[in-house]
Specification:
Largest sheet: 9 strands, mixed
Number of domains: 2
Structural class: alpha/beta
Distance between the termini: 38 Å
CATH architecture of the largest domain: 3-Layer(aba) Sandwich
Oligomer: single chain
Helix content: 25-40%
Strand content: 5-15%
Number of strands: 9
Radius of gyration: 21 Å
Order of helices and strands: HEHEHEHEHHEHHHEHEHEHEHHH
Length: about 350
């Protein structure tokens, strides 16, 4: 059975008992000791849940994995907080781990982390079927949502204020909160791209990166952009209720709700499986899973759960059937090898991006 909200340990006494149980399990304890525990991205959550369900069918004698939707940022923080039974074994992420997060992991002795790319997704912009229709671009989105576009006061109230070709409808955008990997990807793939259209901003990145980040990624807080919860389905429900609202969420939620919502193209490119797979869609992004290698002996089934991901991520696999975009063949092969070889992530790997 899966629980979307759960805590393993609630008191100091339970913590002590669980620590002893983990030690016993590491020495050869049985399958009843602990289940795999994964936290993290709301975007990756439905995919991780399906992998967990298939794992339970494959290994009926194992305890079912516990999967929590905490958001990428919060999930990585929990994952990196330390080792032991009161910490997650895995974190699902809708963006790559940051070098600073890797440092937090290693400072807490989480120094053997396996990184798997498990598929692709896209940051979709959508409205209710029959609702507002916009032809967007990263520059348009940046000008509409930035707190201080190009370092100047934000004065746009309607989409027409941003681009005369767009309708004179109020800018009303519901999107992910700051703890979400989707918000981080929105900044990197859309807002920064739009911001750097101004040569002065590209130059500012070289001279004052902190100021550049503030100007290029800080989102307005005057009500035009509204932070929503980590649950993308809530954004879908809200835009369906108001045809003037634009919602931002993962592609899989767009595909799942095409009977209720419509895609708003980016640079004239629709958010479709094919366009995300070939990266012609500007909001295409990889999805990740991170695993503590040191937990593999202690947590029964953790290694097999990783292998279940490999079995699931093919173009004709179960994850594609619920909206995940499969990786290119070479990426699948590289990540399959990571599972087979238990390849450890290094900070240099992250900084090479």
């Amino acid at each position: 059975m899966l629980y979307s909200t759960t805590t393993r340990l609630k008191t100091g006494a339970v913590l002590a008992l669980a620590a002893a149980a983990l030690t016993a399990c590491d020495a050869g304890g049985g399958a009843g000791a602990q289940s795999v525990h994964a936290v993290g991205s709301s975007t990756v959550y439905p995919f991780a849940k399906l992998v967990a369900e298939n794992f339970s069918r494959t290994f009926p004698d194992m305890r079912s994995p516990l999967v929590e939707s905490t958001g990428t940022g919060n999930g990585i923080q929990l994952f990196c907080s330390g080792l032991g039974p009161n910490t997650p074994d895995m974190v699902n992420a809708s963006r790559r781990m940051k070098p600073s997060e890797f440092d937090a992991c290693t400072s807490n002795k989480v120094d053997e982390v396996i990184e798997l790319q498990v598929g692709l997704d896209g940051i979709a912009f959508a409205s209710a079927k029959g609702g507002i229709m916009l032809n967007l671009s990263p520059e348009t989105v940046y000008k509409a949502l930035a707190a201080n576009p190009y370092g100047k006061p934000q004065t746009a109230r309607t989409w027409k204020d941003v681009d005369p070709a767009l309708p004179a409808e109020p800018i009303l955008v519901y999107g992910p909160p700051s703890t979400s990997g989707t918000r981080d990807a929105l900044k990197e793939l859309i807002l920064e791209v739009g911001c750097k259209k101004d040569p002065a901003m590209a130059a500012l990145k070289e001279s004052d990166e902190e100021k550049y980040k503030q100007i290029c990624t800080e989102v307005r807080d005057d009500g035009a952009y509204s932070d929503q919860s980590e649950q993308d389905n809530l954004i879908v429900n809200k835009i369906v209720a108001n045809p003037k609202i634009v919602g931002i969420f993962g592609y899989s939620y767009l595909e799942e709700n095409l009977d209720k919502v419509q895609d708003l193209p980016m640079n004239g490119v629709q958010a479709t499986y094919e366009n995300i797979a070939n990266f012609s869609y500007p909001g295409a992004r990889p999805l990740y899973v991170y695993v503590k290698k040191s937990h593999m002996r202690a947590i029964p089934g953790l290694g097999d759960f990783m292998k279940e991901w490999v079995k699931s991520w093919g173009k004709d696999g179960p994850l594609a059937r619920i909206g995940m975009v499969a990786m290119p063949a070479e990426a699948m092969a590289a990540n399959t090898a990571k599972v087979q070889n238990l390849t450890i992530l290094t900070k240099a790997d992250l900084e090479a991006e």
